[in-house]
Amino acid sequence: MFDDEPDINDWFEVALGAAMITMGLHQLFNPGGLFEVGVMQWLGAAVVALGFILLGHGIKDMLLKEVRSSIIRLDMDDGSSIDYGLIRDVLLHPDKYQQLLYDAYEMAYADGILTEDERNELGALARVLQVPERSAARMATRAAIESALEDNHVSEAEMDLIVGAARPLGLSDKQLARIVEALQDHDLDSEERAMLDEMLATIPDEEEE
User: Fold this and answer.
1) Which range has the worst mean pLDDT, 106-110, 156-160, 184-188?
2) Is residue 13 within 8 Å of 58, Cβ to Cβ?
3) Separation between Cα atoms, residue 49 and residue 128, nearest integer Å
4) Mean pLDDT across the stretch 78-91?
5) Distance (Å, rounded) from C-alpha 106 to C-alpha 131?
6) CA-based nearest residue to 153, from 123, 109, 188
7) Residue 55's closest CA among 98, 20, 99?
8) I need a surface site. Which of 54, 116, 140, 145 has the fewest CB within 10 A?
9) What residues pair up with 187 in beta bridges, in sequence order?
């Protein structure tokens, strides 16, 4: 997988270094008769030193290559790793993550348009977080009203949700028609803002469910 992995040269250096250390130690304690005892012991010590140098160099190269390959593996895994711990926590404690759904609704309505893809993604997120359909609808309505109040503009998607939120409030058909008429110009005046503020106050927060 990597050109920088330990190869036969590294293993040869390690093996040769270990062999030289063994032979050098043998000459130190059991000097041969080729030269005087003192000379043989000095030669043995030199062989031991060279053996340690070769052994250390081989081990150093192998460690460096292992570290480099580990760094490469980590870099490769960063972009595609899956946090299974987070998934497990979401499945076990979905109520703690419902704010994610509300934040997602706010982002979706920020441009005043709710596309079909955004609607499908929000629905999938609600199912993963086990948010009841009614609670998800209330979050969507709150996000729509907040978006409308923030930019003083009501998109078609926001208007549909706002009108839908007004129905359970016990308003008459005439009052609902008045709301629709007030929002049809897609711009909010002070009276319409006050009306939406009042509606927003009647929609409970997620933790009040």
Assistant:
1) 184-188
2) yes
3) 65
4) 59
5) 16
6) 188
7) 20
8) 116
9) 153
